[in-house]
Design brief:
The protein is an all-alpha fold. The protein has nine helices and no strands.
């Protein structure tokens, strides 16, 4: 690969991060599970136009994310390759469903009773807590690939381990009802989302120095050791 195109995964990762950050800037995070009916109603009525813009940005962002994650999978082998794919597919599906809820709630907020909005928003609030499992399915295989068989740089492996640990702890927000650890609250949309964007950006840079599996197999004297999660 020419040096001109070697850094394209980093550019794709940056595109995804810019789109998501743009969405986070345009509209505040959705109400958490402990929000009052009036707070939920005010949010979806007051931010209806902004929310639809955010939905568009996040929907479009799935395009560069799919390309980047396909690039990562191309560098994996063994069970880890399939586990990673399942994590990416779960992330994409969960994000799409969340966008359905946000777009629908914002479109009908003016004519829907606050209690009904609260029930639907409460369902949507569990998007980020359950998304932690998909993040673990993505982070653990690449961490193993980086630290055990050196497919990716070691720094990326350590970062992925740190991200996985945080996401494992963040699964507790599934049972959280109040404050920082509430479902759909600050731990999900500030800490977790921020670390995910850092991890995605790092993934783009890590892929620039990691050759695809096909290139490693075809190179003279190469040997692929595929462990349980490599």
């Amino acid at each position: 690969m020419s040096s001109r195109w070697r850094h394209w995964p980093a550019a794709v990762a940056a595109t995804y991060c810019i789109l998501v950050i743009g969405g986070l800037v345009i509209a505040p995070a959705p109400p958490a599970i402990d929000s009052t009916p009036m707070g939920v109603s005010n949010y979806y009525r007051g931010e209806s136009d902004s929310i639809r813009t955010v939905v568009w940005l996040i929907a479009v962002s799935l395009l560069p994310l799919a390309v980047l994650m396909s690039t990562v999978r191309e560098r994996l082998a063994g069970i880890g390759r399939d586990v990673f794919l399942l994590g990416v597919a779960s992330f994409m599906a969960a994000t799409t469903i969340e966008l359905w809820f946000d777009a629908g709630l914002s479109a009908h907020a003016g004519t829907t009773p606050p209690d009904t909005l609260t029930v639907l928003a409460g369902i949507a609030a569990y998007f980020t807590p359950t998304l932690t499992v998909a993040d673990l399915l993505m982070a653990v295989p690449v961490a193993m690939a980086a630290l055990r068989i050196r497919i990716f740089p070691r720094w990326y492996g350590y970062l992925s381990i740190a991200f996985a640990i945080e996401q494992a702890v963040e699964t507790l927000t599934i049972t959280g009802r109040h404050g920082f650890a509430a479902a759909g609250g600050t731990m999900n949309y500030t800490l977790g989302a921020g670390l995910f964007l850092i991890w995605v950006a790092a993934t783009g840079f890590a892929c620039t120095s990691a050759p695809p599996l096909s290139a490693r197999v075809s190179s003279p004297g190469s040997r692929i050791e595929a462990g349980p999660l490599s």
